[in-house]
Specification:
Strand order of the largest sheet: 7-6-5-20-21-15
Radius of gyration: 27 Å
Number of strands: 31
Number of helices: 19
Bound molecules: 5'-O-[(L-methionyl)-sulphamoyl]adenosine
Strand content: 15-25%
Helix content: 25-40%
Shape: elongated
Largest sheet: 6 strands, parallel
Structural class: alpha+beta
Length: 646
């Protein structure tokens, strides 16, 4: 596409065939005013000024050591919800941790826009299929930005660059003998876009559904193209190569979710592979049954199946058809429902193409909601997977009422789609999601979100900062001159100094193991012990030098905590670091250690509290008239419920 890339100083400009560097972005922008084809490179991390140029990033990145982190691409059939936000935020935290370590990160996310599921959603919403995709993609883009996720590339499978990649991959695999046409029969779940055999289904209330997702299936028999795991690459079958990869590289993390199975994910997948019914994957559908997708090259009667198409998006986003191509992914974040595709079909495709396999697949659990529609006589709570297709999701929208760009509106909190909508700031949402159990399914509880916001973000983090910037103990509003040596002489500070001395390595280890909540625990512990020094020593009663020692160690705690919390709550952390007067380049992982010496710094005035306490909002209060009406309707509701039971 372009021959040469020169990076000098601040920016590089792409002008069709050549890339060249200039020293200042400002200059670059004015030079190319109106052309809109500028790539901005700051701190050696290229960022596209226009999304149109995302596809050039991989090539830029190939010049340096780069870490690739991906999320699954999201189906464009409905609004984003907490489960999707979780996947994206997890990946974002991983990306931010790498960036704080000065690594260049390619964080890839996007939209899965083909397949029957999207077509059906468009029909339901009375939109054209493309309009459906455009609408939902915009919603997801908004949420990604509002929840402070910062992907480098946002890919949509309806883009031309992606269609070219999928068709090129198909052609290559067909040429190498991995794809064959045959009559294929089985059951199809539109909701999962998955072909399953009878063994993987059960009948509930007279309806056949999949065992795993409980989504309805329909039988089908078609002449399709299949991708065979028995195809041979370098003398070994793809299946054997996948098994070797699973056994030798243990790429799936964590091994398994707690209390869910005695077998690790790896063992479960290996068992599946032994049963031989995943040896062949149907990778196309008759175009007459599903025309919304990429056509099989050279066969106008067939559409490439949406999973084959979607998996290839990881390759498109990393510049597969460009030279050089940055590969393989370091971490691929997925939910547990799509592990089968990522641990069997995906590595097999890569092996067939002769490409390296992902280094790690990080699997997270599901967000569950209370099933309010259940007919449950003993009133025991039943939790089900949050899902937009079943209308049980806590959906997210950018909040238009708060315009500083970091507020989201959550709907469906009470289990009923429009019953109650609550506005939360991105820090609260991120904190709540990351404070969950990474190795398990999690229950969405609005009360817990409010509680975590109040007890940890407001009462601990923000409170420590406001205490040690208050007039009462810090009348000169400064970060006093810091001397570690002098502080070590104070007996009652010993324990806390030790704690701060190891905090970074404790947190970095937990974050590297994807145990975000445990990392946060350690940060909160340090904050609590700083706070208890203030409470017990009452610095406002002490003379200036003693008081300043306490203020400086407490502000140092805030500094280290805020640096370490940047991946979790970027916005609030950066506000704290601004108040403390910490320069951008001093906010890296390596700066999260106790300083030896630091000069006195004036603190930035902070008029507004960083975060206000949240109150639990209740569903709409009913007036006497509507209460009367619902009282009157109650017996009929009961009737309706019992109808459902039969
Ligand atoms: N389009 C496919 C992925 C193709 S990747 C090549 C897909 N899309 S999805 O929109 O259904 O799901 C996207 C991600 O969101 C998946 O990782 C999925 O696990 C996650 N979640 C969807 N619902 C979820 C919960 N209720 N809880 C947590 N995450 C879940 O699958």
């Amino acid at each position: 596409m372009f021959k040469k890339l020169v990076l000098i100083g601040g920016a590089a400009i792409y002008t069709g065939t050549v890339l060249w560097g200039v020293t200042k972005y400002r200059k670059a922008k004015t030079t190319l005013k109106g052309e809109n084809n500028v790539l901005y490179i700051k701190n050696s991390k290229p960022r596209p000024v226009s999304e149109e140029f995302c596809h050039l990033l991989p090539t830029l990145y190939s010049e340096q050591e780069c870490c690739i982190i991906t999320t699954p691409i999201f189906y464009a059939n409905g609004d984003p919800h907490i489960g999707h936000a979780y996947t994206s935020i997890m990946a974002d935290v991983m990306a931010r941790c790498q960036s704080l370590d000065d690594k260049t990160v390619l964080y890839v996310t996007g939209m899965d826009e083909h397949g029957l599921k999207i077509k059906q959603a468009a029909t339901k919403n009375k939109r054209t299929v493309q309009a459906q995709c455009d609408y939902v993609s915009q919603q997801f883009c908004d949420i990604v930005k509002t929840s402070e996720c910062s992907p480098t590339t946002f890919i949509r499978t309806t883009e031309e660059r992606h269609c070219n990649v999928v068709q090129a991959i198909w052609t290559r695999l067909a040429k190498d003998g991995f794809i064959k046409k045959k009559i294929y029969s089985g059951y199809y779940s539109v909701s999962d876009e998955d072909v399953v055999n009878k063994r993987k289904t059960i009948v509930i209330n007279g309806k056949r559904v999949t065992k795993d997702s409980r989504q309805p299936v329909e039988t089908f028999q078609e002449e399709n193209y299949v991708f065979s795991l028995l195809g041979v690459k370098n003398g070994e079958s793809l299946k054997d190569l996948v098994i070797k990869w699973l056994k030798l590289k243990s790429p799936i993390k964590p091994e398994v979710l707690e209390n869910q199975s005695s077998l690790s994910y790896c063992e479960q997948i290996l068992r599946e592979l032994q049963k031989n019914d995943l040896d062949e994957w149907s990778i196309s559908r008759l175009r007459s049954n599903n025309g919304w997708g990429i056509q099989v090259p050279g066969d106008s009667t067939q559409t490439i199946h949406v999973w084959f198409d979607a998996l290839c998006s990881y390759l498109t986003a990393t510049g597969y058809l460009n030279e050089p191509h940055v590969w393989p992914p370091d971490i691929q974040v997925i939910g547990k429902d799509i592990l089968k595709f990522h641990s069997i079909l995906w590595p097999a495709i890569l092996l067939a193409l002769g490409l390296d396999l992902p280094k790690q697949i990080f699997v997270h659990g599901h967000w569950l909601v209370e099933d309010v529609n259940q007919n449950n006589p003993n009133k025991r709570k039943k939790w089900i997977k949050m899902s937009k297709s079943t209308g049980t999701a806590v959906t997210l929208q950018r909040s238009n009422t708060a315009n500083d760009g970091h507020f989201l509106k959550m709907k469906g909190i009470a289990g009923v789609p429009d019953e109650l909508s609550v506005t939360v700031c991105s820090s609260t949402l991120r904190y709540f999601l990351l404070r969950s159990r990474e190795k398990n399914d999690n229950h969405f509880q609005y009360e817990r979100l409010v509680d975590l916001h109040n007890t940890e973000l407001v009462n601990k983090l923000c409170n420590l900062l406001s205490r040690c910037t208050s007039e009462k103990i810090n009348p000169t509003e400064e970060f006093p001159k810091f001397s570690r040596k002098k502080l070590t002489e104070v007996g009652y500070l010993q324990k806390h100094l030790k704690e701060l001395g190891v905090l970074k390595s404790v947190v970095a280890k937990k974050f590297a193991e994807f145990q975000y909540s445990k990392g946060i625990d350690a940060i909160l512990c340090a904050i609590t012990s700083a706070d208890s020094i203030i409470t017990s020593k009452k610095p406002w009663t002490l003379e200036a030098t003693q008081r300043e020692k306490i203020v400086s160690i407490c502000l140092e705690t805030c500094r280290i905590a805020a640096i370490l919390l940047q991946p979790i709550i970027p916005n609030i952390s950066s506000q704290i670091l601004d108040i403390l007067g910490i320069k951008e380049k001093k906010r890296k992982w390596r700066n999260a250690i106790l300083q030896e010496e630091a000069p006195r710094r004036v603190l930035k005035k902070n008029k507004k509290p960083l975060l206000k306490r949240m109150k639990i909002q209740k569903g709409k209060e009913k007036g006497w008239f509507s209460s009367l009406i619902s009282l009157f309707l109650k017996p009929f509701q009961w009737l309706k419920k019992s109808e459902k039971m039969t």
